[in-house]
Amino acid sequence: MTHDRDTLIAAAKAAQAKAYAPYSNFHVGAALGFADGSVVTGANAENASYGLALCAETNAVAKAMNEGRRGGLEAVAVVGGMHGNPGPTVTPCGRCRQVLNELAQLGETDPVIWCSGQDEVLELKLSALLPHAFGPANLG
Ligand code: THU
């Protein structure tokens, strides 16, 4: 593992500070750790049309793919809380699990997901969060 848990969580927390969440006030940050040692972050970006909110994890994956990344996803850190304060542990929503799976399956990795809350860090593999995933391998 190239990435240190607490360092990646710190990167997610730094990203969380850039969240645009004036409607829910729930600020989320995500950090993606890649095999080459690099880190790509994202925060949630909400919309006046509430249902169009973009999650932190999805924004991070979109950023990474727009930089040309197509694999190497080793680790993910997620932090979230009301007004950016620590709270119950946040695991990626269902859509974000599927979006993360695209990048993971492209590079044939099963990234560890560190979900940081006020009392604990939950450590889960993506395959545990999204078992029997549908992905690019199904279309090959
Ligand atoms: N949110 C994320 O950014 N990631 C998740 O995994 C869960 C939810 C965002 C979406 C919305 O802006 C706010 O949190 C409240 O749902």
Q: What are the main properties of this structure?
A:
zinc ion binding; metal-binding; Cytidine Deaminase, domain 2; globular; alpha+beta; binds tetrahydrodeoxyuridine; 140 residues; single chain; Cytidine deaminase; 5-stranded mixed β-sheet; APOBEC/CMP_deaminase_Zn-bd
Unreliable residue stretches: none
CATH homology superfamily name: Cytidine Deaminase, domain 2
How many domain regions? Answer: 1
| Percent of residues in beta strands | 15-25%
User: What is the gyration radius calculated from CA atoms?
Assistant: 14 Å
CATH topology: Cytidine Deaminase, domain 2
Under the CATH scheme, which architecture would be assigned?
3-Layer(aba) Sandwich
The whole-number mean of residue pLDDT values reads: 97
Catalytic activity: 2'-deoxycytidine + H2O + H(+) = 2'-deoxyuridine + NH4(+); cytidine + H2O + H(+) = uridine + NH4(+)
Pfam families: dCMP_cyt_deam_1
Cofactor: Zn(2+)
Function: This enzyme scavenges exogenous and endogenous cytidine and 2'-deoxycytidine for UMP synthesis.
